[in-house]
Every structure is written in C-alpha cells, then in structure tokens.
Amino acid sequence: MTTFRDVPAGARLRGVAPIGPSLVGITPGLDNRAVRMDAPGFAEHESRSLSGSVNWKLENHTLTSVTTWQDWRFDFLADFDGTNLDQLGAQTNGAFHGGVTAGGPYRSRMSTQELRLTSNGDGALTYLGGLYYADSRTERSFVRGPISNLANWDARSGNQTAAAFTQAEYRLTPSTRVSAGLRFNRETIEVDFTNRLPAVPASFDGRSRDDATTGKLALQHDLAKDVMVYGSFATGYKGAGYDVSTGFNAARVRLPVAPETSKAWEIGMKSRFLRNRLQVNATAFHTDYEDFQAQSRRLDPLTQAYENVVTNVGELRTRGVELEIQAKPVNKLLLEASLAFVDAVIKKFPNTNCYPGQTVAQGCRLINNVPLQDLSGKRLSNAPRTKLNLGATYNFPIGETGYNGIANVNGQYQSSVNYDLAANPLADQEGYGIVNGSVAFLNPAQNLKVTFYVNNLFDKSYASFVGDNYNVFGNVPVLTQTLPRNSDRYFGVRIKYHF
C-alpha cells in the first residue's frame, strides 16, 4: 500500500490542480492508511516450479544431477499519483481528462541444469567439480494511461549463464584444514524493447557477453573439540544487465548496467559449550565492491516524475561484525539472539543525480548544465547500521493426551535508514522494532500442526520505502510511503498436514 506521508501547503498536481480536495478525510503521516484513487488497483501473482535431483554412486565418487524449472507470472494496476484529481487535464492542458494508472503483465521463466562430481571417502583430500547452465526469459508489457500516450511499451530480455566450478579441501593436520574454490562464468544477456507511443514508435535490441573468474581461499583450525576459528578471502561477481523500464533507449542498449565485482575478507569463530547447550558464532568481515549495482531515482523528461532505475555506484565498502547465540538452559526452552553491525559507505561516486530541490549549499552543482552531486563518503541507502533479533521457543506436553504445544515469541529491530541513493534527507525511516508470537499444537502422529499466530503484536507502523514526488506536485516535496503487510498487526491460523 502506498499512502501520503507528508503534504506541504501549496502542493498542486502538475503545478495546476490543488491537492487539497483529494485529501478530504485523509491525514498524511506515518500512520496514514487512507488513500483516494481514480481506480481500484490490483496485484496478481502466480508461480509454478519443479525440481529434481539424481545421485549415482560410483566406486570413489558420486555424480549428482540437479534440474529446476520456474515460471512466475505477475500482473498489476496501480494509481500513478495517489489522488482522484484530473491529472490528465493538468498534464495535457485539458486535451484529455481523468486519472492516470500504470501497470501491465510480467512473466519470468527460468530453467537450470547442474552436474556435480564429488569425491567419496574421508581421506585428507576431498574435492568436487561441476558444470552449471541457466536460461532465463522475461516478458513484460507496461502502459501508463489509460489513454496510453504517457508510456506504452513491450520488452523481452534473456540471460544465459554457463559455468564450470571446482572446490577442494585438504586436511593439513587433524585440526587444520585449507580449502580453495574456483569458478569460471560466461554470461550472455539480450534485450528487445519496443516503444509503442504513437508519437515516437521505436524498437531497440541488443546483446552482450561477459566472462568472469571468481575464487575463494579459506583456512580452518579447531582450537578445541567444539571450537573452530576460520579466515577466508573470496572474489565475487554479479553479471551485467539491461535496465528495462520507461525511458529505455539506444544508449541503454550500448551501455548496459555494468557487472558488479567484489573482494571479501572474513574471520570468525563457530563454537559450542556446556554440552552443546550454548552455541556462539561470531564473524567480522570487510568487502570492497566495484560498480556496485543499486536502484536510483531518475527524472523522466516526459512525465517530469522520478522513476527507479538501476545504476552502478563506482566504489563501495562494507564492513562489520555479526554475532549469533543459541542457548538451551532446559530441554524444553530454546533462546536465540543475533546482532549485526554493518557500516556501508560509498567510497567513490562523484557525478550522480541530485535529489529533488537540492541546493548548492547541500552539494548540488551544475556540470554541463546538468545538476549533479558527489556521494563519495556517504552512507549507502537502505542499509541499516544495526539489526537485532531475539527469540524464545518453548515446547510443552498437553496433559496425557499425547499432543504437544510449541509457544514462540520473537522480535526484530533495525536502526534508521535512508531510502534514496541520492541521500535525500526527506526519505529517512527511523529505527523500529516489531514483535511476533505464535502457539502451535501437534497431534500424537506428528502429521498435523495447527498454528495460531499474531504478527506485529504492538501494531508498529513503518515504511519499506519513502519517496519524494517533488516534480509531480509543482516542485513541492510531497512524500509518499510504501507500507508492507507486516507494518500492521494481523493474526491468523496456519494448518499443515503431512500425508
């Protein structure tokens, strides 16, 4: 659900139609759940999948084949401006009238095949090697209208990945092991985009291929029977892609979103104490990214609205620590806790879009008549510094019936984030925490489980995205927020039965 978070005085749709009449009975704010639209929206999902694996036992090896197939379909219709105002009249100087909606069908299909040969036995050397292939196809149509003269396009994109990989582990001593892995990846992407706007019909198609090799080296040592420390270095790769969205053009065909690469260092400990009643895992990490792929907001020259596009951040660094604890003080009670502290900083991103209304004093400057800013040294968007999870699970018998009960309570907290890569201060979400609870009952045969649950017990409201619609409402910072399902308290019953 998308609602108004803040509407300053003087906001006018396209700078023409005052927004006030559309807000009668609506109070913008963090807890706003009311919205007025031109047409009821909808979202429909349908997914199907198949997977299978076969293992052949050989004399000294095991040959494994894994095959998967997925088919996902999605269709939606959404109000574009979140009001019932005459946007078409304001946008076309009265040539047309009515509201504006956006949507269309989307289908994604993917099939994969992996062959893997693994060594058998418990010798000092163990290893595996394999081949992998994936083929994914996406089809999407999009219309912003309803008269279709604002955006109307069809697109098809494809991705084929072929890879060869190997990994081996060698036991140097009974307590020390070294492992190494290597993967060669060849990725081919393609796109076919047709802009169906009557004024500017055009088609673009392209194809690009990229090869990459990644690897990992790790060392493990057992300090004691149940205490292991480790260190590792790994390189990573995320392939190039075509950002298929409104405004796609020949330049995007020539310059697809570049591949993302990374170098990661990690040290940690995995341990058990008190006869396995206490488990403690700790990790410290540091990762450097080149051409980090992230969503950014771009001003569409036709609609004068900011839209989400995928872009490359020049250089990024993340580092932090993670701690996981599990404790079982008595047999029926399990306590769990995890804490993550992550510092994600943009190291180099000198020329990127300014956020709406950003001034020279706030870092926005004209370069070749284009407003740009330097984000080097800024925090990465949508990356909370702190995440905390706490949980408790209690198992109990129900008299002499043979039935068992499971009670669970868990809570999650995350610190504040900013949802705009351009660091718009209006796109902040303060830190928040939610608590969930459930009680489940199992029959003596353990094949029937009935769970009564409540999510967001204390009805804490929060947003999964905050957007500034500055250019839609006459250069006034009108904020909208996307409210996920879990931002409201809800309860229900889940029933599972195993045949």
Automatic annotation (TrEMBL):
Instruction: Tell me the membrane topology, using the record's own terms.
Output: Multi-pass membrane protein
Q: Please tell me whether the keyword NADP is annotated for this protein.
A: no
Question: Record's PROSITE patterns?
Answer: TONB_DEPENDENT_REC_3
**Location of the TonB-dependent receptor-like beta-barrel domain:** 42-457
Claim: Ion transport is one of the keywords in the record? yes
Q: Fetch the Gene3D superfamilies from UniProt.
A: TonB-dependent receptor, beta-barrel domain
Compartments, as annotated in UniProt: Cell outer membrane
- Keywords on this record? Cell outer membrane, Ion transport, Iron, Iron transport, Membrane, Receptor, TonB box, Transmembrane, Transmembrane beta strand, Transport
For this protein, the record's InterPro entries field holds:
Beta-barrel_TonB, Beta-barrel_TonB_sf, TonB-dep_rcpt-like
* Highest taxon listed in the record's lineage: Bacteria
Family statement drawn from the similarity comment of this UniProt entry:
Belongs to the TonB-dependent receptor family.
Q: What is this protein called?
A: TonB-dependent receptor
Naturally occurring in which organism (per UniProt)? Massilia niabensis
